[in-house]
Specification:
Elements lengths: L1 E5 L2 E2 L6 H19 L4 E8 L3 H10 L3 H18 L6 E4 L3 H16 L3 E11 L4 E2 L18 E11 L5 H10 L4 E2 L2 H13 L4 E2 L1 E3 L8 E2 L2 E6 L1 H6 L1 H4 L14 H4 L5 E5 L3 H15 L9 E5 L2 E2 L16 H8 L1 H10 L7 E2 L2 H31 L2 E2 L7 H22 L3 H22 L1 H4 L6 H22 L4 H10 L22 E2 L17
Parallel strand pairs: 1-3, 1-13, 2-3, 3-4, 8-14, 13-14, 15-16
Antiparallel strand pairs: 5-6, 5-7, 7-9, 10-12, 11-12, 17-18
Bound molecules: 5'-O-[(L-methionyl)-sulphamoyl]adenosine (MSP).
The site of 5'-O-[(L-methionyl)-sulphamoyl]adenosine has 19 residues, from strand 2, helix 1, helix 7 and strand 13.
Length: 522
Amino acid sequence: MFYLTTAIDYTNSAPHIGHAYEKVLADVIARYRRLRGDEVFFLTGVDQHGQKVQQAAEKEGISPAKFVERTTYGFSKLWDKLGVQYDGWAQTTDPRHKACVAAILTELKEQGQLYKKTHSGFYSIRQEQFLQERDRDESGNFGPVWGEVVEIEEENWYFKLSQHTDWLRNFLEHHSEIIIPAFRKSELLNALEKNTGLDLCISRPKERLQWGIEFPFDENYVTYVWFDALINYISFAGYKAAPDSGLPDFEKIWSDRPVHIIGKDILIPAHGIYWLCMLHAMGFTDAQMPRLLVHGFWNGLGGAKMSKSTGNVVDPDELAEKFSVEAVRYYLMRDIVTGRDSDYDMNRLVMLFNTELANELGNLCNRALNMSQRFTGGVLKHGGPLTGDDTALQASLAESTSSYQTAMDDFDISKGLEALNRHIVHCNQYAERTKPWELNKDPENKERLATVLYHLAESVAHASVLLSPVLPDAAAKLAAQLNLPALTHLKLTDLHWGLLPDGHVIEKPQPVFPRILVEPAP
Ligand code: MSP
């Protein structure tokens, strides 16, 4: 089973383009793995507890439960709109998740992994955690990422993280496949050095935070939001679930190494240190440790961090309304290299859609389907002997498909799309050279015309399959125009030359990628 998860989004504010990117990325990977023939379980969801939610609800004068009900709907509605198709939905107020967190806490306590102690120190309200000396910047201050910092003395529950860090260091050193891309591993190992000897505070007294999962053995405390949230990856996969819970079979879901997709800001310490150590403490073996696919950030123009105060936060819902879901999905997958950052730029969104989809692919579809309709009554014939142009086109398709597959296996969607685009450009050049519109003028060329049109239409058929993880709706429209709905059920291994049978009749073509027209700036 290929088990894929994303981070669960905080429900204290509305989804932005960074959230949308991660969910679309996961959706594309899930769809691609299905195309490869893998059995896939894709989990995403929302992080509903914590001080930020409690504060946001207080501000509005409503209960946190009411507040998260509304914001959660905002996320799920957007994923539906963007075509993000998940198999499991994680929301941390779900009683089944709470029961799982409670069971894990009880077990860890019984194993002597938890203890209570009083600590006095600096606490960041924004990040909901105690700060260490190493969190100060060069001038000795706690920087703006920590928000308001207060000095408090508090008794809390701690998890013996320090007992697992030697294992973690050794494990990471011997398993280079765990952190993707690889350069993030050295950052993690460096951070681990600084973390040695520290345990993790995993409770918050109810006096200051009520909106969380109560400790099963100490009713005065709720669970630290990260400890609660990380467990979603196993609780919603059926870990320790009752047989009638409606959750999946954990053994089946967690059979191979799962892949967790996360942003670079939550690798250290949350996923790279806390989560792997938590799993180790729970008895997960090295072979069961997940892989962490760490993606980069979408920033504003010029690399500026997106923030409400700068007013440069991009709303994916608005973008989809303005430019179409296809344009948004294509842009988010095409204009960032997985693992690296990118600057959001509306002009590039329009340019990439218009160049690669409306012009290149649109032109190919138009030529293949329209000319077949006009010149041969929509009937595709395998045609006659092949020329060098034909064999070169078939070789280009084979090369593109193989590069696409390598890139997609490496989670590099942009490179996969680039490979596909290469073949589409090749097809348009082939059309320019073979000139079916000229061939049509002389009945003597009937057989040659059929061969040329077949090569173009067959390329559209393959392209629609390869494009389907990124643009499933457009791919289905292309399959319908080719009059081959079965294309949408093909696997990568079915992609061989001759998908369109001899004598196949296509449907009336319609433009699938209408050019985006932008009004000139005033
Ligand atoms: N709730 C935690 C995650 C818990 S996972 C057990 C959280 N939530 S978040 O809403 O702040 O972020 C959710 C995901 O969106 C994270 O993976 C984060 O890295 C990602 N992104 C947030 N802003 C982003 C960009 N500007 N660009 C790309 N991804 C970004 O962290």
